[in-house]
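Check these lines:
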Amino acid sequence: MLLKKFKKEALKFAKGLELVDFSFGLPYTYVLVEGENGRALGVAMTLPEEIQRYENSIGEPSLEEFIKKADSLNIVERTLALAAINAVSQYHIDLNNAEWADAVELFSDDIGKIAVIGNMPPIVKALRERNFKLYIFERNPKLWDKETLSDSLEYWLLPEVDAVIASATCIVNGTVDMIAERAKNAKIILLTGPTGQALPEFFKGTGITHIASMKVVDIRKAIRELKLGCFKGFAEGSIKYIVEI
């Protein structure tokens, strides 16, 4: 399970870092950490449709205690854990070999069928303009449209696709392992979005081939916008990157 792997690796990298701030909220949960080399912000998209009744089992919040909840069955704990893992990752990440390009540019014209996991209109629009055959999957009924398929069909259709671009929220909801397994015939399996901030080496051996995420460079502004529930304001304080696993 990917989240168990994340937990084990992140606890090693968390040594020497302190928890400065955190918040479970909409649209993103965040964790802020600090070490000798400064501060780093990690985020994870909050999935309101999956939130369960929750009573705090973490006790006194700490970076290590958050990370240990990565494989919890409770979505609140998993979201906080992934934000913490992402904060640790962003503190240590080396982006010297990253690409500063749009994620859809990874898909060459010889690719036929693409699975888009999570209805992401800008990405869908860009891929349609290039005439790819798309399967668009979405779990949240509020985000469905006439072209959207239920995510229950992923198990059936993923073995047929040549490439996958999936919202990194599949890490939070625990479907990332199934996606990688069922799409093993795909040339590219790309996770995209701020939730995919984990260190690229954490994904080795999983079948994931690329990560497209963002590094927060204006932490103060990003936290302010996150506290106000803003999507775009948060992104404005960040830079996008793509790394190959």
In short: The chain has two domains: 2-97+219-238, 103-212.
